[in-house]
Amino acid sequence: MVKRRVVVTGIGLVSPVGTGVDRSWEALCAGRGGIGPITRYDASGQAVRIAAEVKDFNSDDHFEPKQARHLELFVQYAVVAAREALADSGFQITPENAARVGSIIGCGMGGLPVIEKYVQVLHTKGERRITPFFIPMAIPNMGAGQVSIFLGTKGPNLSLTTACAAGTHAVGEAFRAISNGDCDLAFTGGSEGVICPMAFGGFHAMKALSTRNDAPEKASRPFDKDRDGFIIGEGGGIMLLEELEHAKARGAKIYAEMAGYGMSGDAYHIAAPPEDGAGAVLCMENALKDAGMSPGDIDYINAHGTSTPLNDEIETRAIKKVFGEHAARLAVSSTKSMTGHLLGGAGGIEAVITALAVKHQLAPPTINLEEPGPDCDLDYVPGQARAMAIRAAMSNSFGFGGTNAVMIMKSYEP
Fold it and tell me: What residues are annotated to the active site?
């Protein structure tokens, strides 16, 4: 079967560096981070007191007060980013085309804050005080579900819950759904909103988080020798993917073309990658094969780049294994240095960033990279964004459970 070409025709962002694509992209290109002290609640008793919060988001600007009370933040972020992507695309969803429009969105942890809240309600006030909205607020598929409801899409409605690879898996599955003819367009990406004590307690117990509380703006430092863990972030990144001929017929603007998607499993450990990076290597190779590309065709990689000691060293090793001598010529940056790690939403926001990098021929920087770690010896675009030719770009996401996802975009050529 001849697979249909798929392009990016709309984008939306709610991120720790700004709500809206223009604000977020300008901050990322300027190297401005969004990490600071936790303000969502009193975190003074926590070991980790810093996060990448969405600071300029007001629910009342986007939802009726009653609606907002029954929508967890990860859902609100997904809906608002999807609305921006729809408006940006110029597409109109109608009763005639709704069945050909999908909602395929990733989320790692769903409504953890509302679970935390109602566990306390259960034990202090009893079962009768649990709201009937509790389950619909908590389940992770409500990002995709509510985007479908709010926008009126009736095509594939799917949520990917594959830890930190969820957003990229969602983009890849949307790409495949359109390419295979299951739908003509799909809202896709990822969202997350778990800035709550339970999340910080759990990740800190795993020794996964940075404890640089006194210098939050310097805490996320991918590939740096002094990196000590990741920063929990929140937000959502949603793209509208569209079959090429459908996009051309309506005169849509095109940011980039989807080129390849790869998946793999480490079969190794619940949280740590294998030392040789074999799962990541296989995943990148699978994406290149799917795209019909050789390693030399890739110019930029938006790395998983979490700022943890293990990931950054092993991801570097995996890139060098896949790309060989070409690895030295790649631009590789981690935008988590500015946004923190959005967990299941990371692949969504980073897919949007990758599309913008291809469109504007500009690689965003890795900030806080003062001295690379001894095993981190690639070109990580330190400090400043770089104007460069980007024929094709790769985005990596690797999750707990050894689940890996990689997608490739390229410059659109008619």
Answer: 164
Q: How far apart (Å, rounded) are the C-alpha atoms in residues 17 and 25?
A: 8
CATH superfamily label, 6-249: Thiolase/Chalcone synthase (3.40.47.10)
Where are the chain's structural domains?
Answer: 6-249, 261-410
Average pLDDT over residues 312-322: 98
pLDDT digits (tens, 9 = 90+) for 253-270: 999 999 999 999 999 999
DSSP 3-state of 398? strand
The amino acid occupying position 151 is L
In CATH terms, the superfamily for domain 261-410 is Thiolase/Chalcone synthase (3.40.47.10)
- State the amino acid at position 28 in one-letter form: L
For strands 300-302 and 185-192, give the pairing. Answer: unpaired
Quick: pLDDT tens for 55-106: 999 999 999 999 999 999 999 999 999 999 999 999 999 999 999 999 999 9
Q: Decide if 6-249 and 261-410 have a common fold.
A: yes
Segments of 150-309 assigned E as strands: 157-160, 185-192, 235-243, 256-265, 300-302
How is residue 85 written in tokens? Answer: 């992507």
**Would you state the pLDDT for residue 213?**
98
Q: Tell me the β-bridge partners of 386.
A: 363
pTM higher than 0.90, yes or no? yes
Residue 300 tokens, joined: 């930029």
CA 304 vs CA 119, 282, 319: distances in Å: 33, 15, 11
Which residues, at least 6 apart from 209, have a Cβ–Cβ distance to it below 8 Å?
A: 48, 200, 203, 229, 230, 231, 232
Residues sharing a CB contact under 8 Å with residue 383, sequence separation 6 or more, in sequence order: 31, 365, 366, 367, 369
Q: How far apart are CA 102 and CA 212, in angstroms?
A: 41
